[in-house]
Amino acid sequence: MLYGVTWSQAIVYYRHYWDDKMVLKLLIDTVHEALITHVLWFYLISKADSAACLNGSWSLTAQAIPSDLDLFIVRCFYIVRVWKLGGRKSTLLVFIPAVLALIFGILFMQEFARFLALSNFTGHGSRHRLLEIFLSVGTACDLTSDVGVTANMYYLLYKARKDGPKTSRFADITTATTSRWRLH
Predict the structure, then answer these.
(1) 13 belongs to a structural domain
(2) Range of 76's domain?
(3) DSSP β-bridge partners for residue 117
(4) Is residue 125 part of a domain?
(5) 5: number of Cβ within 10 Å
(6) How many domains is the chain built from?
(7) Which of 13, 18, 116, 134 could form a disulfide with 108 if both were Cys (CB 3.0 to 4.6 A apart)?
């Protein structure tokens, strides 16, 4: 069902934006959906016993990489869009936390994959402290990047409103950009 929703969104997207080359985005989404489907099957069907669910599956770890890559691509798109609309080079500084969020997300999943036990999250596992650091720093970078993009977009909206008739053009671009990326 999730995969069907993804494909229906892709079909609607291609009908409206037929000139966009989205092969990489669809490939990442396809891999992510396949891994999520395996995670759901693993925990809900094959390991229905609650004690067996404490051991992680390889797909739980692997699904985070396409998910993080997808999120990184969307963030980069918005950063570049805000930079082009605003023309301020300081906007590009938001790339730093976006890249760090991707790196720490991959480090977190790599470390978690070494010992696929969910007890590492409860404070009892041997890798708890390292996982906690990777997760905390990665989340802080996620937040910093998102707040940076949001603050720049608010600044551009304020500036466009203050300058006058450019508001409708900026609103059109923002609406079109947002609707192109849907709920990523």
Answers:
(1) no
(2) 55-181
(3) 55
(4) yes
(5) 11
(6) 1
(7) 134
